[in-house]
Amino acid sequence: MPRTRHAFTLAEMMVALAVFATVSLGLFTFTATSLRLVGRNLATNHSHGNMRVSDQELLYNLHASASPFVLITYNGTAYADATATSTSDVDAFTQQNISNRTNGVRFRLAGGGPYQLTASTTSASTSLTFNFGVGSAVPYVPEVGDKVVLPLLSSSFDITAVTQTPTVANPTGIITISAPLGFAVNTTTAGNVTTGYFYREVAYTVYNNQLRYHANYTGSNQGNYTIVRDDVTSPNPFALLFAPSAPTSTGLNLRLSLEFYDIDYYSARNYKNGTVTLQAVIPPRAQPPDVTQTNSM
Fold first, then answer.
1. Model confidence over 73-86: pLDDT tens digits?
2. pTM above 0.90, yes or no
3. Is there a single domain that holds both residue 163 and residue 219?
């Protein structure tokens, strides 16, 4: 009796190979797409994480502003104030008009205080003496360009000179202010206490795709900065907001529109959609602010 051998025909083999190839291609496509989606999600999460961490201090400082915001520009060589002018562009959040946009903004933050005035003055005095000691330290040292605010007198003054710099060994500091005090202060009678708060000018700028923080924006210190965030793609993220037909002096709220693009971390894998945009409207901490616009804010 002849033996019968069972096997696939050529046609059956071709059909099986076609089915196997189709299934394999589908699985490969699904896996590749899944990996790419996971990679893009990681890129986006990385961008969000970096933005949150790097911008916490930015938002904190802007919200803590003790003065009006002033727009500034930097062209790679020099810093300059920019006049905020209302435009026809309307902010979607507030329905207010957006001013011209710039790559920088300056304002004042609290530097130290309250410190006690320790020497009596006359109304014509331009020299003030304070005790800057806090425990066994001097956490704040006044500089020319800072401002001193005397809440009891409702007055603020520029510091034009520091005639005695406070130290740990001698925390007494003497400053010269930009105008006569206007009040006679008696510090010798028991119970008489007059204090001063000190404010320093700071700034944020964007240049060369970097968000920069200027911890001291006074005089020759303007060019000193620390990098808060790189890979910033918004060249002019700062503007002021104006109510319709409002004068320039009412532009107090800062509009921030900052975009960060993670162009380095995942660029080798071509996952370049890790873009994050931060948009916020930030008022000064107090209106009217602690530091007035007099004496060149």
1. 999 999 999 999 88
2. no
3. no
